[in-house]
Amino acid sequence: MYLSDHPKTQTVSSNGAVLEHFSTGVESRPISNVRRRRTSAAVKMTMSCGKADPGGDGRNSESDIAIELESLRNRVKELEAENAKLLSQISCCQCQQMGVKHELSVLESGSLVRRSKRGRRKAEKSIPSHLISKRYIALKIMYFGKRFYGFSAEAQMEPSIESEIFKAFERTRLLVGDKKDCNYSRCGRTDKGVSSTGQVVALFLRSRLKTPPGEALVDEKMGLEGEYDYVRVLNRALPDDIRVIGWSPVPIDFHARFSCSAREYKYFFWRQNLDLSAMDTAGKKFLGEHDFRNFCKMDVANVHVYTRRVTFFEVSPCQNSHEGAQLCTFTMRGSAFLWHQVRAMVAVLFMIGQGVESVDLIDTLLDTKTTPRKPQYLLASEIPLVLRTCEFENINFICSSGAAQSLQTHFKNESLRYQLESVIFQEALKNCLPLTNEKSTCKSVEKKKKPAIHAPLLSRPTEPSYEERSSKLKSRQEETCSVLE
Known about the structure:
Keywords: Coiled coil, Isomerase, tRNA processing
Order of helices and strands: EEEEHHHEHEEHEEHEEEHHEHH
GO molecular function: pseudouridine synthase activity; RNA binding
Region (Disordered): 42-62, 446-485
GO cellular component, one term: nucleus
CATH topology of the largest domain: Alpha-Beta Plaits
CATH class of the largest domain: Alpha Beta
Coiled coil: 62-96
CATH superfamily of the largest domain: Pseudouridine synthase I, catalytic domain, N-terminal subdomain
């Protein structure tokens, strides 16, 4: 049993015995054995003198002590509960402050946060998203698309460039909320295998600059020096074939797709026996505004206008060559391009460069009134296609000197690595068995492959026209609606 350390009070019984008891206090301590003996003796004396005290003063003193002890017990329980509640509040405040300091130190150093999912969820719950400073920025991204299933993650095919980028956002703790809450937009959706040196995305990311609660920094001219080094931080979390090469603060009405004024593509190829002059003459016919439905894959559910403007076209040799073979490139620039448009244009130009089709074929395919149906032909390979740059007005991408140096070193090392891989295939080519004109000693007769015969493009089977596709889609939608009703 515990009693408080407050001053004692004395009570005199009917027989003259003095009884000691304590007033209510906060802190308590055990009663000594001596006090226990005194108290019990006083109680016994009071009870034995009950006949001389008909008023029952002894019994009243015993009940008073019991009531006093019970009140002390209740008070101790109340103080213990209050103490536990205060300790819990202090520990929560300390954990929250430590979490904020840890996240800030992680972002400043550019290192990754390696936490368990449970730890990340606790940290996200402890800091409300509206209290975190953020700003609207655009990122310029390079990626080598050979191993990816396109840029967009919406096709549910992994890996994709977009999914890898958002994984880096989460690892570096730069993403506030989720993809739906960050006002995300992208300039283009490149296909499987297509690369880029200038893709652009825009979204809200965590900022080092302090902003009022619930507001984001949208002034693109503020805080360039004191801001996070987004390029360095993200590149440490991205795979080797994806790199952020610059960032820029942008206004709140910026949209990576609709704010883009021009996109430029490059397509690399070996010259071999192609007629570059004929290909250049044919390619110049793409300049201007035309209906390119015969040079794309039609998506009638989402695209209803197939008119696009091409502002630049050029066929030119590159500085690279290998064993006498010259590397060349198509360069095309326009405000926007359709699905598979560039690869379809290149495929037709290759036919013209090989001499199996005439230059006038371009005019015929661009005239959708005389040629409403697209002839069937294979697209050019996606590997040599590169989205070189996306152009915007009044947007200047920046990169710190340290991050720029790291990028140059990384690109040089990757280039040397791929050149080493090329050397391995060249060595295999040298070790191939020599070709001989001797008759085969095998009993089976080898069948020689017949040379492929080119079928004129305009005489090939055609795909359904836009009107036919649209009518078919409309009928399907009507059938679906009737079934649901």
